Amino acid sequence: MTVLKRDERVGIASIFGPNPARGGALAAKDFDDMLGKVDAVFITAPNHVHADLTRRALVAGKHVFCEKPMATTIDAARNVFDAAGAAKTVFQVGFNRRFAHVYRRVKELVASSPPHTAHIKMNRGELLKPVWTGDEQITGGFLFETPVHMFDMMRFQFGEVASIDARLSRANDFSVLVEFQTGMHATFVTSADASWFFPFERFEVFGEYSTIETEEMDSVRYRLGLDAPTHTEDYRDVPQESRCGFAEQDRLFVDAILGTVNRRYRRSMDFAPWSWSAPVTRARGKSGACNLPDSGRWFRLRKSRQLEKRIGLLLAQYELRCHFAHRRPVFVSVA
User: What is the extent of the structural domain holding 14?
Assistant: First the structure.
């Protein structure tokens, strides 16, 4: 919410959450009361209520930024997709890494040196603190927490997915082989209890005589060419809201709204953050116009039908990060 407060086009008009006292003078008595006071809503509630709140806000004619994941079931995702398609407002899902300096630089490097394979890691240290992180009734499962970012990032960097072969060795411990329509393939490993060993997330991309390696959203190292030197670009001194993509995705969300609403709104917009525990929100996101994939065509998964459904839904949500304002796409994927 810090970024939004600095944007002169935006005014924080109302806050709704389970503890009204946290919202102070801006606290709304319920979600519908809040909707009556605002033009746009930031939904940062627990995962399992994202879809319902998003659908209600879209039906009410509000612009919506929804934290990832958009939904935790296929049916709920389709309901949001239908509501977004019927509305004439902006809808965006929070995938901040598409705007992070490191991953935008990787995108440029991949374009100049096409990869043939990659290895991706994203781990957590534990699912103990806060206690709800281990409750699948609230989160939808570990894959809907941090790993969803890397599924999105693989598609952002390497294009459309052709197939997935996944393994679940134990609870919240996954190994995945992803094949892309270009013929490239990548491995993705993610574990929920690997200890807080730095770096927790890493991209390693390999091409002909080239290697690109990230360390969190802090730095990228690369060598492009057999005899080329190794370069390091470090972003640790960049403010976090910019380094991690939060500032850019907020700006683009507001830009998209101001391009779709009546002229009288162009100088001032009212937003409402929906926060589970506090009025402070952190928006994350990227959006693009696309279609819902046929999960039966996209996935080859083994060992667990539940795992198939989860990964299928995660990839489907990349296709659901879209909205048509006045029947035209309002977000364009960063290239």
Answer: 2-95+242-329
